[in-house]
């Protein structure tokens, strides 16, 4: 075993604070939490269909409230595993004493990307704050025959990899039999149809100034590897959302300054069991 921050390490880790370095490992801090969906996980040598997950959001003070269950957790760190080195994530002892633990796959030589693990909450609820140290990374020398070539992490340009297990690498293009044009001052967002995740393709998103350029190009998308068949007539390929261009300045404020308003809004919205937003706050839109 070796220390990733040591002088002989060929690996690197970002976002390490001074107090994160331990005698034999580096502490990892919690960034994001995703609740793993209760769906069928399908796995064979030819196919992999994940359960999927839904991102959870902390409260105004940065606290996550997690009921017993299983969660994918993303750390604040980005790792680049050096040649002939490997590592894995383990649980901090404080969590382990309270029936909370992490499991992690092996970080192979050549992996470059985000750090993640599965957080298992047992016995009772967990109240954990964003930025808290929940795991440790152990690094070691390894005899690496090849380097990592999986579908996670970043590609050679530093961008997150497309899920190669699910989609073909090639980009498919379809020429629609329609065009979109708008009056002066209006643009359009072209995006994958909202709430249509079950479609066998994933359309690219783009904003086009359709008052200056009437869209007459191809629609680009990734196609799922295991899809065989015909995309039926009437299947939505893309969703087009027109909007008026205007100058707008946004302001970032301290969450403490807005927490009173947010708490009041939550109590207001939750005063009714269902459909409060739809029935009381949503503005009806007219599309022509």
Description:
The model has no long low-confidence stretch (mean pLDDT 85). Strands 1, 2, 5, 7, 8, 9, 10 and 12 form an eight-stranded antiparallel sheet that branches. The protein has a three-stranded antiparallel sheet with strand order 13-17-15, with no helix packed on it. A three-stranded antiparallel sheet has the order 16-14-18, with no helix packed on it. It contains three helices and 18 strands. The protein has two domains: 130 residues, Deoxyuridine triphosphatase (dUTPase) (Deoxyuridine 5'-Triphosphate Nucleotidohydrolase, Chain A); 73 residues. By secondary structure, the protein is mostly beta strands. The termini are far apart. It is globular and about 65 Å long.
Descriptive tags:
288 residues, mainly beta, Deoxyuridine 5'-Triphosphate Nucleotidohydrolase, Chain A, 2 domains, eight-stranded antiparallel β-sheet, three-stranded antiparallel β-sheet, 18 strands
Topology:
Elements: E1 12-13, E2 26-36, E3 42-43, E4 48-49, E5 53-56, E6 63-66, E7 69-80, E8 85-91, H1 93-96, E9 100-103, E10 112-121, E11 126-129, E12 133-141, E13 172-174, E14 186-191, E15 201-203, E16 206-208, E17 219-223, E18 239-244, H2 255-269, H3 276-281
Antiparallel strand pairs: 1-7, 2-5, 2-7, 2-12, 3-4, 6-11, 7-10, 8-12, 9-10, 13-17, 14-16, 14-18, 15-17
């Amino acid at each position: 075993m070796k220390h990733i921050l040591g002088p002989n390490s060929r690996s690197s880790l970002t976002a390490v604070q001074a107090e994160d370095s331990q005698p034999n490992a580096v502490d990892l801090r919690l960034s994001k939490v995703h609740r793993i969906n209760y769906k069928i996980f399908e796995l064979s040598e030819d196919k992999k269909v994940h359960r999927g997950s839904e991102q959870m959001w902390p409260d105004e003070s940065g606290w996550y409230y997690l009921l017993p269950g299983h969660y994918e957790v993303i750390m604040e760190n980005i790792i680049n595993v050096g040649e002939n080195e490997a590592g894995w994530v383990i649980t901090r002892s404080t969590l382990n004493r309270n029936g909370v633990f992490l499991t992690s796959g092996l970080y192979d030589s050549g992996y470059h990307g985000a750090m993640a693990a599965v957080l298992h909450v047992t016995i009772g609820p967990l109240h954990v704050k964003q930025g808290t140290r929940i795991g440790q990374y152990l690094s070691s020398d390894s005899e690496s025959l090849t380097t990592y070539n999986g579908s996670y992490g970043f590609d050679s340009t530093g961008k997150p990899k497309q899920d190669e297990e699910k989609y073909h690498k090639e980009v498919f293009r379809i020429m629609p039999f329609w065009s979109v044009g708008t009056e002066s001052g209006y643009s359009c967002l072209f995006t994958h149809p909202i709430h249509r995740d079950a479609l066998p393709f994933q359309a690219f998103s783009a904003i086009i100034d359709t008052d200056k350029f009437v869209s007459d190009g191809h629609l680009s998308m990734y196609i799922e590897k295991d899809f065989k068949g015909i995309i039926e007539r009437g299947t939505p390929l893309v969703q087009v959302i027109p909007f008026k261009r205007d100058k707008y300045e946004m302001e970032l404020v301290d969450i403490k300054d807005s927490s009173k308003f947010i708490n009041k809004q939550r109590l207001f919205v939750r005063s009714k069991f269902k459909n409060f937003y739809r029935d009381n706050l949503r503005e009806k839109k007219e599309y022509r």
